[in-house]
């Protein structure tokens, strides 16, 4: 679980990066070209990472979590596959300003960030509840306080 | 003030064609040609003179002037299709106001008069309204003469109006009313017209003003040259009206009906019924009965003025005034006085006048008063012209609107319905009359209701206008309208902006702008000043629509921030006076160009750099384009835009890439071959791009040698990608323009492509694939180029599939342009060869702007969300244009983010910052101002159908690439269905069984059908993929005028051109044949037809065409001897030949690319092309227009 937690914090960071970069673009701090090349670099790691985690869930027979992750992972893969051949990646600098794409990317990143944060705390809870019975109850606050370091 | 007192300035006004500015217009004399636009100038503009300092910055423009209208008449013709009326009309229109202005300027300067105007006493008002009437009458009557066709087209309506109460003066005004939509394009200051003629009218109308009414009216009419006196014209026309109307009686009855209803006290109806409705409900009958007699005596003006006065004044004055001509003679004086007052307020330096807030504040109570007492007093309206820039047109209109709908249910279905329409028609003229008589240009009063007039699409077969479709005029106060940007440069799909997104959604029409920012303008105010005044928060450039709060502060019209007026701005170089910031040229013109300081440069302005990348593979040599290109280049080498730093270079490629060392000092050009195409490098980076002037001889040598250098090549491969990479490397230090000539699918190195087209799928009705690029190589390259300020222009001359969808990316995102010549061959396809030649000439010599960026700003609350055109969107609203050319058009879609309830105007500003070919950094700024409306019917009234269709075409292209062609087609059909359904549901009383469209949208289904049958979107007909993609590229990058011709070509019958309804352009007589429906039913074997498709003219000759025509115009004895591939008309000395040629050359002059003429006989293979453009006919794969309408109707009913 701790590995999963760390992977989720990785996703969250990744999405936070997405959001920050996109809002930079929205505010005109960077231009579309650099924004998209920056973001496209992270699309593949995100897709792979999420797929791996999802598969791991399946392997470790955590059905509920697996099902929770499956739609998001599927969407990620679908999005990656459906990029038209002429585009420069999921984020295309020539299209990002058109038809509200920037906004929809932003929205998507926000939703996923929320999802990952939710997952993160859920796993954390489960991690804690799994560890806690084995150890002494009074360790719990210490564990919780150390969570941000995980 | 007495009439004589008003006289002295008039001679000046008579000369106003040249210097309407009156005093202080000395500069005008230096540029006589620039006089014309003055006539249109609003009151404030009339003061505008540019000191020579301004003019000196105009190397590219013919004359310095406050206006950018085309002064040479020829040029004038070039931008408007309806030049004639368009060009004359405004002159007459503005004449009264103008004259008044000039006289005012020297006489009265009382800024406070405006208040007094509100409290006008009846006689005054009568007088004041009289003044403008003249303008209206003269213009109207003139139009009668000039616009016979439009007149006849509207017979019905005329007749009703004639039969109606407003008779005598209603008549000419009606004509004016109807001609108006045709003319409306003319409202913009850039429309030019023969200065002398306008001047004459000017003088006449004005001087005659002090004369007794009858004489004066005669004189104005005399100008119109058909009928010398009013009675004649009236009596001529009245019977016509009666004879030609279908249902005069019924309409008359309708009138009666209305009148009786009026009597019973339905006040708003009365308003419209009688001109402009300044009359109480009890009065209309009086006024009617009084006016009618006047029709006969022919004292048109007196009657008019009588009506005007009656309109304005309370009942007693009504009865006393009209009959006496003395009273009329008196009224002009008063008119003058009045006019002086009102105009003095405008021309005075009072800061209040430009202050929208103050005006707005003032405007609203007025509005309320109008609505509360449903009698909009014309005098109030008039004063409002002087003092209230906006908020006015609408209130006055309201009754018209209210009136427009209620009568409808009364109408029975079939013929009765018609009479219903006439009924409206007859109501509106009153409004139009008032507005036109207001001496301003407030045509919207009539235009709005007219544009809302319901048209039964399935019944009315002739919906095409006589001449080309004009752009609707925004419903603004005349002052603002005069200042507003030309529709040629800047158009909005909805000239009435809906207040909220909800309202916009309800209207189901797209909201967007169509821009042609770098259009060739013959006149453009160029401003040099060390500080360019801009809003501190939103960076908007100061423009005519800002408001000056006081002398030292101005309020931004986009973000409403209050800014300081810089010290320098207080000085007006125009009048050399201090303290008149609102008279600066920036504030007087909505299109201006600034010379930018070094703040606007990231690096020193780049030189003009041109690089030609030429395909020299076997295929290319076989096609023979090199000869044409080299020839063209040799001819135009000196005309290439640039300065002494201009540089030029050449790269050729087949399976290798060849560079040419043209360094000065070499005895002959040196070819350097790089065969390592996987890792391309520049052999001698310094000497490949050379100074054009220093190495001219070498360049000429190369161009002479080039066509023959590769004649025996056996290389069939094409390494386009590597050649482009090399070109990019070569250009990246400076930026500039790369022109790529490609004749086949690139087959080697980076960016190689494979054939994706399946010829069997060409006529598939299902899926059209491969509309998008196959690789991102060209896109990336384009973005790299764009980043280095380099644009790539693509000339694709291929006979087989070349994957334009992929190749086009290199131009699309680098702000280049795309030319495509399918099945090009120098000798086998002379039409294409000629086209290439002409295109190249234009391409090489047209203006060019380098390292450009364009930003579109709009009033807070609106936001731009999608851009169409060739460019790269660098950040939310910044378009990066490596090059900008005068033939590039752009479109943007907008949404309304915040409700616009607290504003009555919205503005859009386009700023294009570019480096001219002379190395100057310049900013061209266009500002468009539009009113905000809150009702759905107003939104429909302001719909600009051409702009809507062009924007939809752009959206459909996006849709077909991102989704599928079928989706895009469905979306187009749905656009019509939804908007018409929404319209019909607003006018719920309309019969659901009929397909009704507002007049403003009556062409919408036709245009959409034309779009569906356009190469880009058609299915079922065999269309090559490249052709389709090219059509799509054009839709994205063509300006509106060209795009409209492409979508819906103009068809004229030219075998019977007569001298009737001709126009004079540069002492040539140009006949004006009426537009024909695009239907084979219009083609007769006895005729000859010219189809103007924008880039090509088809001249179709019927089998039994008159031999005289064939002999005179084509130069052949009979039909059989006319050759198949004829592309030129011989110069035969016969009137019919002269007419035809002058008509065709006039059409050609109106566009930058001169189109190729193709003569089509019955058995010609090009015949199919011609017939494909007859979009109203049914084809094997598509609906006819009527079927399409039925289909729409069905979908609406569903």
From TrEMBL, chain A:
Indicate what this protein is called per its UniProt record. Answer: Cornichon family member 4
Query: Which terms does the UniProt entry file under GO BP?
Result: endoplasmic reticulum to Golgi vesicle-mediated transport
Gene Ontology MF terms in the entry:
CCR5 chemokine receptor binding
Q: Signal peptide: which range, if any? A: 1-27
Q: Which residues cross the membrane?
A: 47-70, 109-128
Pfam families, sorted: Cornichon
Give the similarity note. Belongs to the cornichon family.
Q: How does it sit in the membrane?
A: Multi-pass membrane protein
For this UniProt record, the keywords arranged alphabetically read as follows: Membrane, Signal, Transmembrane, Transmembrane helix
Would you say which domain of life the source belongs to? Answer: Eukaryota
For this record, an example GO cellular component is: membrane
What are the leading ranks of the lineage?
A: Eukaryota, Metazoa, Chordata, Craniata, Vertebrata
List the subcellular locations: Membrane
Q: Which InterPro entries match?
A: Cornichon
């Amino acid at each position: 679980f701790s590995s999963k937690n760390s992977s989720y914090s990785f996703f969250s960071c990744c999405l936070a990066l997405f959001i920050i970069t996109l809002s930079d673009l929205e505010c005109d701090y960077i231009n579309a070209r650099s924004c998209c090349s920056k973001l496209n670099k992270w699309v593949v790691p995100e897709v792979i990472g999420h797929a791996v985690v999802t598969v791991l869930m399946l392997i470790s027979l955590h059905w509920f979590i697996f099902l929770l992750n499956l739609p998001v992972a599927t969407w990620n893969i679908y999005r990656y596959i459906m990029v038209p051949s002429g585009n420069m990646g999921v984020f295309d600098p020539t299209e990002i300003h058109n038809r509200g794409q920037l906004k929809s990317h932003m929205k998507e990143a926000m939703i996923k960030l929320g999802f990952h944060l939710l997952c993160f705390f859920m796993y954390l809870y489960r991690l804690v509840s799994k560890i806690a019975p084995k150890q002494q109850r009074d360790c719990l606050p210490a564990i919780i306080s150390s969570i941000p370091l995980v | 003030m007495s009439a004589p007192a008003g006289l002295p300035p008039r001679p000046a006004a008579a000369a106003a064609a040249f210097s309407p500015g009156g005093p202080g217009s000395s500069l005008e004399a230096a540029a006589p040609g620039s006089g014309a636009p003055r006539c249109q100038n609003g009151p404030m503009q009339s003061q505008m003179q540019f000191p020579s300092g301004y003019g000196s910055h105009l190397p590219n423009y013919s004359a310095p002037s406050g206006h950018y209208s085309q002064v040479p008449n020829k040029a004038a013709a070039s931008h408007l299709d309806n030049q004639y009326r368009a060009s004359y009309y405004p002159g007459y229109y503005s004449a009264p106001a103008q004259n008044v202005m000039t006289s005012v300027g020297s006489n009265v300067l009382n800024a406070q008069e405006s208040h007094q105007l509100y409290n006008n006493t009846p006689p005054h008002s009568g007088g004041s309204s009289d003044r403008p009437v003249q303008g209206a009458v003269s213009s109207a009557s003139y139009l009668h003469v000039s616009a016979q066709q439009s007149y006849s087209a509207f017979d019905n309506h005329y007749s009703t109006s004639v039969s109606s109460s407003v008779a005598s003066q209603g008549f000419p005004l009606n004509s004016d009313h109807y001609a108006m939509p045709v003319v409306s394009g003319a409202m913009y200051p850039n429309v030019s017209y023969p200065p002398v003629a306008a001047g004459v009218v000017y003088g006449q109308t004005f001087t005659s003003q002090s004369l007794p009414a009858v004489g004066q009216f005669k004189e104005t009419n005399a100008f119109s040259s058909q009928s010398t006196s009013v009675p004649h014209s009236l009596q001529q026309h009245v019977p016509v009206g009666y004879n030609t109307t279908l249902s005069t009686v019924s309409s008359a009855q309708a009138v009666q009906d209305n009148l009786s209803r009026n009597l019973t006290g339905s006040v708003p109806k009365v308003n419209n019924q009688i001109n402009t409705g300044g009359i109480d409900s009890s009065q209309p009958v009086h006024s009617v009965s009084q006016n009618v007699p006047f029709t006969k005596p022919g004292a048109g003006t007196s009657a008019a003025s009588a009506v005007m006065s009656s309109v304005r004044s309370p009942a007693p004055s009504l009865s006393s005034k009209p009959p006496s001509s003395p009273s009329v003679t008196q009224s002009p004086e008063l008119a003058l006085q009045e006019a002086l007052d009102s105009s003095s307020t405008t021309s005075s330096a009072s800061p209040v006048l430009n202050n929208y807030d103050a005006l707005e504040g003032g405007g609203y109570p007025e509005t309320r008063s109008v609505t509360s007492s449903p009698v909009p007093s014309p005098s109030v309206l008039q004063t409002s012209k002087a003092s209230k820039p906006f908020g006015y047109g609408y209130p006055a209109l309201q009754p018209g609107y209210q009136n427009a709908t209620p009568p409808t249910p009364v109408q029975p279905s079939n013929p009765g319905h018609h009479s219903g329409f006439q009924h409206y028609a007859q109501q509106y003229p009153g409004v139009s009359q008032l507005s036109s008589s207001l001496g301003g240009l407030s045509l919207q009063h009539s235009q709005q209701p007219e544009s809302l007039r319901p048209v039964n699409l399935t019944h009315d077969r002739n919906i095409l206008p006589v001449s080309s479709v004009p752009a609707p005029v925004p419903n603004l106060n005349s002052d603002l309208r005069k200042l507003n940007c030309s529709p040629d440069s800047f158009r909005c799909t909805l000239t009435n902006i809906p207040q909220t997104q909800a309202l916009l959604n309800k209207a189901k029409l797209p909201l967007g702008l169509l821009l042609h920012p770098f259009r060739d303008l013959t006149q453009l105010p160029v401003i040099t000043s060390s500080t360019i005044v801009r809003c501190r928060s939103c960076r908007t450039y100061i423009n005519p629509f800002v408001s000056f709060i006081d002398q030292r502060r101005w309020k931004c019209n986009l973000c409403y921030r209050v800014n300081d007026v810089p010290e320098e701005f207080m000085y007006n170089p125009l009048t050399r006076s201090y303290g008149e910031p609102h008279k600066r040229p920036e504030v007087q013109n909505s299109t201006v160009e600034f010379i930018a300081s070094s703040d606007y440069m990231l690096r020193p302005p780049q030189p003009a750099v041109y690089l030609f990348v030429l395909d020299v593979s076997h295929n290319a040599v076989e096609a023979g384009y090199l000869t044409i290109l080299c020839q063209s280049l040799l001819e135009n080498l000196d005309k290439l835009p640039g300065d002494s730093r201009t540089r030029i270079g050449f790269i050729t490629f087949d399976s290798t890439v060849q560079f040419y060392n043209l360094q000065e000092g070499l005895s002959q050009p040196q070819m350097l071959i790089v065969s390592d195409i996987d890792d391309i490098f520049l052999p001698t980076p310094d000497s490949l791009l050379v100074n054009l002037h220093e190495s001219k001889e070498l360049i000429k040598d190369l161009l002479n040698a080039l066509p023959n250098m590769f004649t025996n090549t056996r290389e069939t491969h094409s390494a386009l990608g590597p050649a482009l990479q090399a070109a990019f490397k070569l250009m990246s230090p400076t930026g500039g323009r790369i022109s790529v000539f490609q004749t086949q699918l690139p087959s080697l190195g980076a960016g190689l492509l494979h054939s994706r087209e399946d010829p069997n799928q060409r006529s598939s009705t299902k899926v059209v694939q491969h509309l998008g690029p196959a690789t991102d190589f060209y896109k990336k390259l384009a973005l790299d180029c764009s980043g280095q300020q380099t644009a790539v222009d693509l000339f694709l001359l291929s006979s087989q599939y070349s994957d334009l969808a992929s190749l086009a990316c290199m131009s699309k995102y680098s702000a280049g342009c795309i030319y495509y010549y399918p099945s090009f061959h120098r000798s086998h396809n002379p039409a294409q060869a000629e086209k290439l030649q002409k295109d190249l000439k234009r391409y090489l010599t047209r203006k060019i702007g380098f390292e450009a960026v364009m930003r579109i700003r709009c009033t807070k609350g609106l936001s731009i969300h999608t851009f169409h055109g060739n460019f790269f969107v660098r950040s939310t609203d910044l378009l990066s244009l490596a090059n900008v050319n005068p033939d590039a058009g752009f479109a943007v879609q907008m949404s309304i983010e915040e409700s616009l309830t607290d504003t009555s105007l919205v503005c859009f500003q386009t700023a294009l910052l570019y480096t001219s070919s002379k190395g100057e950094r310049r900013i061209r700024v266009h500002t468009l101002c539009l009113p905000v409306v809150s009702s759905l019917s107003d939104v429909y009234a302001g719909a600009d159908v051409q702009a809507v269709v062009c924007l939809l075409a752009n959206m459909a292209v996006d849709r077909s690439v991102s989704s599928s062609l079928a989706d895009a087609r469905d979306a187009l059909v749905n656009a019509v269905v939804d908007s018409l359904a929404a319209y019909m549901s607003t006018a719920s009383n309309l019969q659901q069984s009929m397909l009704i469209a507002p007049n403003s949208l009556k062409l919408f289904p036709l245009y959409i059908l034309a779009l569906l049958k356009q190469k880009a979107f058609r299915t079922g007909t065999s269309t090559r993929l490249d052709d389709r993609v090219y059509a799509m590229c054009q839709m994205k990058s063509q300006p509106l005028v060209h795009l409209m011709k492409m979508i819906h070509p103009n068809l004229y019958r030219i075998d019977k051109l007569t001298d009737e309804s001709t126009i004079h352009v540069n002492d040539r007589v140009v006949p004006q044949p009426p537009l024909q429906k695009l239907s084979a039913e219009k083609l007769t074997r006895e005729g000859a037809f010219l189809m103007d498709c924008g880039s090509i003219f088809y001249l179709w000759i019927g089998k039994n065409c008159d031999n005289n025509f064939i002999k005179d115009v084509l130069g052949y004895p009979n039909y059989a001897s006319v050759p198949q591939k004829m592309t030129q008309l011989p110069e035969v000395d016969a009137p019919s030949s002269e007419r035809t040629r002058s008509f065709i050359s006039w059409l050609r002059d109106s566009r930058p690319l001169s189109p190729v003429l193709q003569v089509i006989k019955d058995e010609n293979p090009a015949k199919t092309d011609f017939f494909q453009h007859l979009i109203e006919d049914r084809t094997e794969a598509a609906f006819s227009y009527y079927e399409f309408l039925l289909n729409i109707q069905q979908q609406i009913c569903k």
